[in-house]
């Protein structure tokens, strides 16, 4: 079956998360642990009621002191929408200033996007072979922000060639993945973010395939109902797309079913 199929890069083929987290640990030390669920409200003890200054573990953190009158407030650290879009949950728990410093390090790193590891070793070469055999029109889309060295597009092309995909078509995009899928008349778009898959379902006719490495029981509740199709790896997706169609029942089987009806 000939397909027009597009693959997101980071989180689907390339392990950007580990690379960013390694830089963050080098700059700031261990990353913040996942936030614990909020503690249930408790009734103040008599001592705490009598003494407002008494310690209370469930109290809100102390707010920073206000900026003195007449002093200029510090400018917020800027990160671009493209940088914010591709951040992992753990990176987003850093302060805004730390996120800015992290991306500044990426911007200074020569050809950062060529240094990433393949999430599933060998799967890009396998994808290349299957796409050639089945005459798939394969496109790679990414929202990677710039780094040092060559353009993001050239870095991504060289990375794909190095891992076994000849002559890759790479689009560095901005905005909705659904609009990209519609503009390119895609049959399938493969992504690792549920919100991008939802855009595909709303704004195009393409199938939205979600790469979901965790247990499928942890999927967002409405993902399947909205028509998003989860698979746990690109290898599993290739297996699914290349599996022979189920055999149709022959005439005798149909007659037997009619007789039993």
- Major sheet: size, sense and barrel closure? 6 strands, parallel
Q: Within the largest sheet, what's the order of strands?
A: 3-2-1-4-5-6
Secondary structure tally, helices: 11
Q: Specify Rg, calculated over alpha carbons.
A: 25 Å
Q: Look at the structure and give the mean pLDDT.
A: 84
In terms of per-residue confidence, which ranges show pLDDT below 50 for 5 or more consecutive residues? 36-65
Give the class from helix and strand content and strand pairing: alpha/beta
* H/E element sequence: EHHHHHHEHEHEHEEHH
Question: What is the general shape?
Answer: elongated
The percent range for helix content is 25-40%
Describe what you observe in this structure.
This protein has 261 residues and is α/β, with parallel strands linked by helices. The protein contains eleven helices and six strands. It has helices at residues 16-28, 46-50, 81-86, 89-92, 96-108, 123-134, 152-162, 177-183, 194-203, 234-242, 251-260, and strands spanning 4-8, 137-142, 169-172, 188-191, 207-211, 229-231. The chain has a six-stranded parallel beta sheet with strand order 3-2-1-4-5-6, sandwiched between helices. Helix 8 packs across helix 9. The two termini are 35 Å apart. 25% of the residues are buried.
């Amino acid at each position: 079956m000939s397909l027009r199929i597009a693959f997101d890069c980071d989180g689907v083929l390339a392990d950007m998360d580990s690379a960013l987290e390694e830089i963050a640990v080098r700059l700031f030390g261990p990353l913040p642990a996942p936030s614990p669920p909020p503690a249930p409200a408790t009734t103040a003890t008599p001592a705490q009621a009598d003494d407002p200054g008494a310690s209370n573990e469930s109290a809100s953190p102390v707010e920073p002191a206000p900026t003195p009158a007449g002093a200029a407030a510090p400018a917020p650290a800027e990160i671009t929408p493209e940088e914010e879009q591709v951040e992992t949950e753990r990176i987003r728990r850093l302060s805004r200033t730390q996120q800015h410093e992290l991306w500044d390090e990426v911007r200074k790193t020569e050809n950062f996007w060529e240094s990433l590891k393949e999430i599933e070793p060998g799967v890009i070469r396998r994808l290349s072979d299957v796409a050639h055999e089945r005459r798939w029109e394969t496109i790679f889309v990414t929202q990677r922000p710039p780094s040092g060295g060559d353009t993001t597009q050239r870095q991504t092309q060289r990375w794909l060639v190095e891992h076994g995909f000849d002559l890759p078509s790479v689009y560095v995009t901005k905005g909705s993945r659904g609009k990209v899928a519609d503009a390119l008349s895609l049959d399938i778009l493969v992504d690792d973010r549920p919100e991008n898959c939802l855009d595909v379902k709303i704004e195009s006719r393409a199938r939205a395939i979600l790469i979901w490495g965790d247990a499928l029981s942890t999927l967002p509740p409405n993902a399947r109902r909205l028509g998003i199709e989860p698979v746990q790896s690109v290898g599993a997706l290739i297996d699914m797309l290349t599996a022979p169609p189920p055999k149709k029942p022959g005439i005798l089987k149909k007659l037997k079913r009619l007789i039993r009806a």
